[in-house]
Every structure is written in structure tokens, then in C-alpha cells.
Amino acid sequence: MIELTHIKKTYDTGRARVTAVDGVSLSVEKGDIYGIIGFSGAGKSTLVRCINLLERPDSGRVRVDGVELTELSVPQLREARRRIGMIFQNFSLMPSRTVADNIAMALRHSALTPEKKKEKIASLLELVGLGERAESYPSQLSGGQKQRVAIARALANDPKVLLCDEATSALDPQTTRSILKLLRSLNEKLGITMVVITHQMSVVKSLCRHAAVMEHGRIVERGTAVDLFSHPQQPITKSFIDTACNVDSLRDYLEDQTERKAVTGGAPVYLLTYAGSETSEPLMANLYRLFGVSANILFGNVDFVAGTPIGRLGVTLSGENEAVSRALAYIKDRRVTVEEL
Ligand SMILES: Nc1ncnc2c1ncn2[C@@H]1O[C@H](COP(=O)(O)OP(=O)(O)OP(=O)(O)O)[C@@H](O)[C@H]1O
Prior knowledge:
By secondary structure, this protein is of the alpha/beta class. The protein is built from 13 helices and 14 strands. The chain has helices spanning 44-51, 74-81, 99-106, 114-127, 143-154, 173-190, 201-207, 225-230, 235-244, 247-255, 257-264, 283-291, 321-333, and strands at residues 2-12, 17-28, 33-37, 59-64, 67-68, 84-88, 161-165, 193-198, 210-215, 218-224, 270-275, 294-305, 308-318, 337-340. Helix 4 crosses helix 5 (143-154), helix 5 packs parallel to helix 6 and helix 12 crosses helix 13. It binds adenosine-5'-triphosphate. Keywords: Amino-acid transport, ATP-binding, Cell membrane, Membrane, Nucleotide-binding, Translocase, Transport.
């Protein structure tokens, strides 16, 4: 559905030349929810704004639903953009217009009759759970409700693609969950392809099937959300995952050598990460049964990523040195990742 090829975008700030996107290629399948994660300034927004040519890349190709956008005339591009909805962190609603009028703005070039437009607006508001708020003004709505209006507006022209730029970053955790749930249901009901920019791995965790990690204008790692969560390769991906899965708290705790000695008795701490069916194996029991090695659990966390459980355990292992080595080899054989902390 979306094909970006060797996208490069630089900005001339007067004093310096900033390379915001540095030769990125990205392919997003129809119906996918694709996350783009990275720290502030990594180039996520610029990359996503290249998908609808809100930013025109210096070089590279942008193909959406089989159409090469960079080759279109201005009127053709305007038409093509209607098939690409976008929502933002700050909602971008017109404060002086009602909810219904905000959505109507997106339909001003539509061929629908005024009657049909009214029906369309009502059904869009129904879809986002705001059937009763057509005549409210944005100032009368909560942040979550404003984002729902923005989503309804983005869907007005039946887009095939929805771009979400930090859509939940300004919302509290509970409202974030409800907006992510809405986006998931729209993806299921409408089959709409979504690209979701975020600096929070928790958004990737609960929404995305695939994701790419950006750093300094480049994609440094990409894959299924399950793979990124269970077998992150790059340091930046690991650090995002550690934060999302609370491993940070264990690392912080172990940094204090006195605390560390008190809980581990000086034994090494291993972080075991396992995904999917690997979780069902009674691993700890087997370590004792097969090797006489017992595990002392210091930390445990299970996340569900795209419906797959991914577990993390922080353990010390006690037993004969030789037995512990064999136990570690046994664990690794079961596709459990072992990291010494
Ligand atoms: N219009 C602009 N003019 C000059 N520099 C820009 C412009 N837009 C972005 N940049 C620069 O390009 C780089 C990438 O910015 P971008 O907003 O794409 O990153 P981001 O990952 O989306 O970060 P954030 O989450 O903070 O928005 C940054 O160094 C930024 O300062």
C-alpha cells in the first residue's frame, strides 16, 4: 500500500543543514498497522509527512496505493491526498466551528449532496463514539473526544491510509488506551492501513503489527512487533523495550552494589526473555529436575504484543558451576534469550 524508496529530506536552517531523513526505504502492506518509533528529532514526523507529500523529499520515490505521488500535478495530488487521512498530537480542530462543521470542512470538495454530507457526518460521529456531540464546540470536549473528532474528520473521504503523528502523546493513559482501541477497531472494520508515529513503545505494543526504529534520520531496525519485543538487536531498540517492559527498574536496582549484593549474594543476574509458546514450558522446574539448578526470581513481567505473550524474568541461578553452565545452554536451546545484567 505504501512504498517509500530512498527518501532523503534536508532542511536549511540558515546556520546549518539538517538531514532529517537520510535515505529511508519502507514498505507497508495493505491493512497493516505500522509503528515508527524513535526519540525526539529522529526524523519520524518528517518521514511520515513525506507519505502525503506535506513534506516533499529532496530525493526518493513515494508510492501510495499504486500511485507515484511525486509525479502528480497539483490538482491530482490534492485528490490523492484525500485518500490519506492524518491525525496529530494537538488535534488541529477549528475552535470556532462545531464538531459537525469541523468534519464538514473535510468534505467541502466532495461530490456528496448536502443531505448525504449530513448523513455521512452523523455516521462518522457514530463510528468514533460521539453520536451526541455534533453541535458541541472543541472547547467543550475532553482531549480524547477532540482526538475522536479529528479521527472522524480524517476518515471523511474514506481514506485507504491513516497517518497518526503522536496521536496519543497528549492524552492520559486511560484515554490513550481508549483511542488505541478505537484505532484498532477502525483498522479491523475498515481495513484501513495505518502508520503510527510514537516515542512510546507501549503504543507499538498495543497497536502495531510491524514497526521500525528510527535514529538520526535512518531506520536502524525493523520487523514484526513481536520480534522487536522478544529479540531486539540494536541498543536503541533494547532501551525502548527495557523502558516499556519495566526492565529499567531492575537495572536501576542492580546498579546499587550494596542492594545488588544483598539480593544476589554476588551471583550473576540473568534476564531471560521468551515469546509465545516458549512461555508454556515449565522452564524453572526443568532446571531443577534436569540439572539440580534452582532459580531465584528477582523480576517478572509478561506483555502481550499483537496477542503474543512475551515474558521477561530476572533470575539468579544456584548450583554447581558446571550444572549452571549446562542449565544456561538448555535455556538458550529453547529460544529463550539470555542476557547477563
Ligand atoms: N521545518 C523544519 N525546518 C528545519 N528543521 C526541521 C524542520 N522540521 C524538522 N526539522 C529538523 O529535522 C530533524 C527531524 O525532525 P522530526 O520532527 O522529523 O523528528 P521527530 O522524530 O518527529 O521528532 P519529534 O518527535 O520531536 O517531532 C530535527 O533535527 C528537526 O529539528
